[in-house]
Amino acid sequence: MAGIYIHIPFCRQACHYCDFHFSTSMKKKDDMILALAKEIVMRKNEFAADIVETIYFGGGTPSVLTNAEIEILIDAVYQNYQVTGNPEITLEANPDDLSNDRIIELSRSPINRLSIGIQSFFEDDLKMMNRAHNAAEAEACLAEAVKYFDNISIDLIYGVPGMTNERWLHNINKALSFGVPHISSYALTVEPKTALDKFVKKGEIAAPSEEVSHEHFLLLVDVLQANGFVHYELSNFGKEGYFSRNNTAYWLGKKYIGIGPSAHSYDGTHRRWNIANNSLYLKGIEGNKLPTETEKLSPADRYNEYVMTGLRTIWGVSLQRVHDELGKLFSDHLILEATKFIVQGLLVNDNGIIKTTREGKFLADGIASDLFYVA
Q: Which of 21, 85, 116, 290 has the least C-beta neighbours within 10 A?
């Protein structure tokens, strides 16, 4: 089983915190759709023996596409790959694109899962982030979307400067009031070369507090688990049957192809990434050349990636799998390095599966880096 990720590199405006690859100019959108469809065809042999389980439109802002453009790309997948009978087909969408008519239109397309970038229900938060939508649009689009889509995820951001625990709880409870079955939530981080980075350096916006982010994270975990959500990955909470199949495959180390500029691919032993430049990507595809670089993963790379992704999930890191796939050197290293965190109550060895505890979850990425094997 495998997945296909399609990167749509366009946004109506730049969010202050975002460091993903995108352009705010739509001039090359038509050319890009044709190039994406062509890359899908060019890479069909990579999945010749695999069945596609998920198709994921990420970005950027995929909801800037029309239904016709979306279906060009989905048709290209169906015509060139083996697709399972009931694939998960996700579209990332912004509230300002989701008018009532647009939601109805999307419900008639092959898209069967929406991932909506709400981020906050407070107007001042959205303005600080430079989101393209306002608080009223956030609520209106959700009220309408739940009428037509059963499988909806929303994004929320915590650790926003000035956000009290009460305001954060309001955001969580507002999200729950719409009955969505999946919530992805991330701490606000200051990425280099973003507008937020410049504002923080100039003192115009306070730097996010790790202590506040940790408090918000623990509130989120407790409230969502009390409401029937499973905390199945560090930033993701889902009702049973509504975990993201696309993202779960990534965390479990399954194969995926990334289509479009800046998109990454993984086949179990190699990682590839396309050039993060729209013009150079279009030029490469036009010349029948994949504008990509490839890296063969060493055993240490594979071990480190498995530890990083595994510790973020409820499935943890299997000592047996490490031993069987990579050898005794790596399983012994994992046991040795994990011991101090087990003593501290941040990790637990659950019948040979290394997992984070409640206290260790927020620190999962840092703990993982301490467990890495460095040759």
A: 85
Reference 274, options 80, 26, 40, 47; nearest CA is 40
What global pTM score does this model have? 0.95
CB < 8 Å & 24+ apart, contacts of 315-321: 315/251, 315/252, 315/353, 316/350, 316/353, 316/354, 316/355, 316/356, 317/353, 317/354, 317/355, 318/352, 318/353, 318/354, 319/349, 319/352, 319/353, 319/354, 320/352
Q: How many CB atoms lie within 10 A of CB 48?
A: 9
Reduce the DSSP state of residue 56 to 3 states and report it. Answer: strand
pLDDT tens digits for range 195-244: 888 988 999 998 999 999 999 999 999 999 999 999 999 999 999 999 99
Give the three-state DSSP class for 25.
coil
Query: Rounded to an integer, what distance in angstroms lies between the CA atom of residue 164 and that of residue 158?
Result: 10
Cβ neighbours of residue 343 under 8 Å, at least 6 residues apart? none
Best CA proximity match to 52, nearest among 6, 104, 17, 102: 6
